[in-house]
Amino acid sequence: MNIGEAAEATGVTAKMIRHYEQIGLIKAAGRTGAGYRVYGPNDLSTLSFIRRSRDLGFSIAQIRDLLALWQDRARASSEVKRIANEHIEEMREKMRLLQDMVGTLEHLSANCHGDARPDCPILQQLATGDAETSCC
Amino acid sequence: MNIGEAAEATGVTAKMIRHYEQIGLIKAAGRTGAGYRVYGPNDLSTLSFIRRSRDLGFSIAQIRDLLALWQDRARASSEVKRIANEHIEEMREKMRLLQDMVGTLEHLSANCHGDARPDCPILQQLATGDAETSCC
DNA sequence: CGTGCACCTTCCCATCATGTCAAGGTCAAG
DNA sequence: CTTGACCTTGACATGATGGGAAGGTGCACG
C-alpha cells in the first residue's frame, strides 16, 4: 500500500505521515525498490490510532506515550487514564481562559452602541484599562 | 525611555516590541545617537493598547484593525463592535470544539478502571473507533 | 581613567502541527 | 512514448513568542 492510499484509508495526510516518521512517532515504513513507502495493516492501525488521538486533541508528545502504552501488553490502565485526565484538565483550563475573555468582551460589546458614532467602550477599555462601563 | 523600560511599563516584552515594529504593527521608534530605541508616552499608550488586546485574545491582524480604528477620530463604533463580536464567535467556536473533545474523553475516562490491569476503554476507542462502552 | 555589569543592537533558530510549493523520479494506461 | 497521477526530498510559511549568540553602549564605582 502506497502512502497516498494509506492517507486515504486513515485520514492522515501523506505529508503528516512522512512528518510523523521523521520525528520518530511511527517507525520508518518499508520501501519498494524505487523508494516508495509501503504500508501494511499494522501501520494503518497505528495511523488510525494517531488520527483518533489527534481528533481528541492530544499533543504529539501525549500520543507518543499513548502509542507506547497501547503496544505494551503489560500496561496499567491507570497510566492511560492519568494521561487522559491530564489532557482533560488542560482543555478545561483553555476553556476557562476563553470563557474569561468572552465574558469580558461580551460585556464591553453589550455596552457599545454599534452605530456611526465614534465613542466606544471597547476601545475605551483597550486604551485605558478602565472599565468605564461598570454599569452592573 | 529605553525599550526595557517601555517593556516593564507596558507588560510587552522587549522582544515583542521589536517584533511588532518589524511587522509594521507599530511605527518604528525613534533612536538615540547610539541606535537605542526611544519611547514616549504615546508609544506607551499604543503598547498598552496592544497588550490589553492580546489579553483579550485578539489576533495581530485584529489588533491592527483595532489600532487603526482607535486612531481614527471619524470611526464608527459599529465597526469596532463587529470586530469584537467576530472574535467572540471565534472563541465560542473554539470552546465548542474543546467541549466536544472533553465530553468524549470524560466519558471514556469514567469507564476506565484506572488500575493495574491493561484493558482500557480509552485505548480501545483510540484503536478501533468503537465506543464499546456505549453504556448509557 | 579603567573595569564590570546591565542594557542595547541585529540576526538566527526553535516551538507546534500543518500546508504549500518546487524539482525531479516512477508507474500504469493509452 | 507520452501523459498524468503519484511518489520522493527539501525548503519555506503560518502565529506569537522564546532563546541565544556576538558585539556595541551607558553608567557607576574604584
Automatic annotation (TrEMBL), chains A, B:
Keywords carried by this UniProt record: Coiled coil, Cytoplasm, DNA-binding, Plasmid, Transcription, Transcription regulation
Location (main, coarse): cytoplasm
Coiled coil segments of this chain: 81-108
PROSITE patterns: HTH_MERR_1, HTH_MERR_2
SMART domains named among the record's database cross-references: HTH_MERR
Locations listed in the record: Cytoplasm
Domain of life: Bacteria
UniProt keyword Coiled coil present: yes
Domain HTH merR-type: 1-69
Keyword DNA-binding: yes
One Pfam family this sequence matches: MerR
Family annotation (PANTHER family): HEAVY METAL-DEPENDENT TRANSCRIPTIONAL REGULATOR HI_0293-RELATED, REDOX-CYCLING DRUG-SENSING TRANSCRIPTIONAL ACTIVATOR SOXR
Protein name per UniProt: Cu(I)-responsive transcriptional regulator
Gene that encodes the chain: cueR
